[in-house]
Structures are given as C-alpha cells and as structure tokens.
Amino acid sequence: MKYHGSCHCGGIAFDVEGELTQAMACNCSICARKGALMWFVPREQLQLSTPEEQMRTYTFHRHLIQHRFCPTCGIHPFGEAIDPQGRHMAAVNVRCLEGVDPEALRITRYDGRSA
C-alpha cells in the first residue's frame, strides 16, 4: 500500500510503500521526547516529494541514524540509517502519515536507552 506523509507545515513531504502492520516505540533520549512511532522500510520505498535541501539532519550518540526534521515546524517525519545487514533503511514516523491510526497498529517496544 502507498501512504503519503509530511511534517506539520508540509515543508517535507513524501510517499512510502509497504505493508504497515506494526510500529516501534523506542525509549532512547530522542524518540522518547519526540513521541515517534517508527515503521522501518527499505530506503528505496520512501520517495521524497520535496527537495532534500528543505530538511535538516540531527545525529547524536554514535551518529548512525540521520534524524530528518523540518526547520520550519520542527517535526521529525523520518530517519535514515544502514541496518546491521548493510541495507539502507528509512524509519518513518507513522504519526506523520495521512489516514493512519497509530492506535490500530501493533506496537513493539525497543529499549534504545540501553543500546
């Protein structure tokens, strides 16, 4: 299925394809503050509708994940990283997807605080 997502002001917009049945809630210092629920897909399944120059990137700790955010509204719609198998992945914040009820998804917990 194809989903459309964006930050609050629309400065970052994208489409993502895949089967969305679950999301991950992480308790690391940034995810806990953002309240993000992440859905992981291969990066090629996420297509930006707006220029990459319109986003900003934040990294911390080991600097493995590029947390993308809008400099205007501050919303973090997705992140990017390479998984342990060497695949380029996107972590889409399902709260930024149109027509998706996060309460209807199976939520798994990840202890990112201990990672």
From TrEMBL:
<dbReference type="Pfam" id="PF04828">
    <property type="entry name" value="GFA"/>
</dbReference>
<dbReference type="InterPro" id="IPR052355">
    <property type="entry name" value="CENP-V-like"/>
</dbReference>
<protein>
    <submittedName>
        <fullName>Glutathione-dependent formaldehyde-activating GFA</fullName>
    </submittedName>
</protein>
<keyword id="KW-0862">Zinc</keyword>
<comment type="similarity">
    <text>Belongs to the Gfa family.</text>
</comment>
<feature type="domain" description="CENP-V/GFA">
    <location>
        <begin position="3"/>
        <end position="111"/>
    </location>
</feature>
<dbReference type="InterPro" id="IPR011057">
    <property type="entry name" value="Mss4-like_sf"/>
</dbReference>
<dbReference type="GO" id="GO:0016846">
    <property type="term" value="F:carbon-sulfur lyase activity"/>
</dbReference>
<dbReference type="GO" id="GO:0046872">
    <property type="term" value="F:metal ion binding"/>
</dbReference>
<dbReference type="InterPro" id="IPR006913">
    <property type="entry name" value="CENP-V/GFA"/>
</dbReference>
<keyword id="KW-0479">Metal-binding</keyword>
